[in-house]
């Protein structure tokens, strides 16, 4: 009787292993979802300035329709800026989750589709590695074209928080970070997910992971071993201030990952908040309040504290609809 040949693994099966890492579903949205260039947040008039930049890999990054949100009353006065960095399978629309919290303190917010995400160019994402270069290019643009912006901080979620840590390790001028759900080491995270979600034992994982790492490097020139954030965070300037956030029921990036990063960061000005929720759930109001308080204190609130300006009360004959967080939760992928 003729012996049957072992069945060869299907290409589609292998793609299911590596593609979710560097090519998750791209978030698609329409430009009209961004609302009007001028909006009201309470009594504060906010203007959105549109532009685009090109990163070091010559990819065009779309800030074009939602880039810089500034209170009109501080556009010609010194004020700080927070750059918001979205998670994977997401986009610059995430920035709307923090705008309403920071605008009352005269803090501008800059949103961006990181390379490989949203409307920006790029075939693959890199979970923070190449995205950190996007941040450096954006900071350079702001420094060159927005002279009234003083201090710049970063607020990132998931992949965006890892992007922020890597960017801060390369740029000492970034003095405040908000890191919502960062992973500590990509290989460790994938190994945990393989065991808990797919029941793949450690010995089998090691074999598969070697193949996946090779494929990822071949496709995206990304060495996933470089995404050892535990190691990177120890190189940050000790003067940097970091707020870590983590949802207690997060099964994608468990609490232990932000906790390890908190423990390893050598600086003294650090806090960590844990709260009920999952990876993509809306952050509780009290958590947002404490986080904004932390950001304001680190940026130096006395430097730009202003009274309401008459410019806030100019008549605006447009639709001032602002993006609601509840709408955004329908867009973000859930655990």
Report on the structure:
With 335 residues, the protein is an alpha/beta fold. Helices cover 33% and strands 20% of the residues. The chain has helices at residues 11-22, 96-102, 131-145, 159-170, 186-198, 202-220, 229-233, 256-264, 285-299, 325-328, and strands spanning 38-41, 44-54, 60-71, 79-85, 108-111, 149-157, 174-180, 241-247, 270-275. Helix 1 crosses helix 6 (202-220). The longest helix has 19 residues, at 202-220. It is globular and about 60 Å long. The model is unreliable at 1-12 and 307-335 (pLDDT under 50).
Summarize it:
The protein is an alpha/beta fold and 335 residues long. The chain has ten helices and nine strands. The radius of gyration is 21 Å and the shape is globular.
Mean pLDDT: 84
Q: Helix and strand succession?
A: HEEEEHEHEHEHHHEHEHH
Rounded to the nearest angstrom, the distance between the terminal CA atoms is 49 Å
Taken as a percent bin, the fraction of beta residues is 15-25%
As a whole number of angstroms, the C-alpha radius of gyration is 21 Å
The biggest beta sheet reads: 9 strands, mixed
Adjacency order of strands in the biggest sheet: 1-2-3-5-4-6-7-8-9
Number of strands: 9
Spans where pLDDT lies below 50 across 5 or more residues: 1-12, 307-335
SSE-based structural type = alpha/beta
């Amino acid at each position: 009787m003729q012996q049957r040949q072992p069945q060869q693994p299907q290409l589609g099966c292998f793609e299911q292993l590596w593609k979710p890492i560097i090519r998750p579903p791209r978030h698609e949205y329409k430009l009209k979802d961004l609302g009007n260039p001028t909006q009201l947040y309470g009594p504060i008039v906010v203007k959105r300035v549109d532009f685009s930049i090109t990163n070091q890999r010559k990819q065009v990054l779309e800030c074009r329709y939602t880039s810089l949100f500034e209170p009109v009353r501080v556009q010609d006065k010194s004020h700080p800026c927070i750059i918001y960095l979205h998670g994977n399978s997401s986009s610059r629309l995430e920035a709307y989750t923090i705008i309403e919290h920071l605008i009352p303190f005269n803090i501008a917010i800059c949103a961006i589709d990181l390379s490989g995400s949203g409307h920006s160019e790029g075939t693959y994402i890199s979970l923070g590695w190449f995205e950190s270069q996007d941040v450096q290019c954006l900071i350079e643009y702001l420094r060159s074209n927005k002279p009234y912006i003083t201090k710049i901080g970063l607020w990132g979620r998931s992949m965006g928080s890892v992007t922020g840590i890597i960017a801060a390790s390369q740029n000492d001028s970034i003095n405040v970070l908000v890191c919502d759900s960062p992973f500590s080491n990509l290989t460790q995270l994938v190994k945990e997910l393989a065991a808990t979600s797919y029941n793949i034992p450690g010995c089998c994982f090691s074999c598969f992971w070697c193949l996946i790492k090779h494929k990822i490097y071949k496709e995206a020139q990304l060495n996933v071993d470089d995404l050892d954030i535990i190691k990177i965070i120890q190189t940050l300037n000790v003067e940097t201030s970091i707020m870590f956030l983590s949802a207690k029921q997060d099964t994608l990036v468990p609490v232990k990952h932000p906790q390890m990063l908190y423990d390893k960061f050598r600086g003294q000005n650090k806090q960590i908040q844990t709260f009920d929720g999952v990876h993509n759930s809306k952050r509780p109001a009290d958590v947002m309040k404490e986080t904004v308080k932390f950001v304001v204190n680190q940026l130096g609130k006395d430097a730009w504290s202003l009274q309401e300006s008459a410019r806030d009360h100019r008549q605006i004959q447009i639709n001032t609809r602002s993006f609601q967080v509840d709408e955004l939760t329908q867009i973000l992928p859930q655990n």
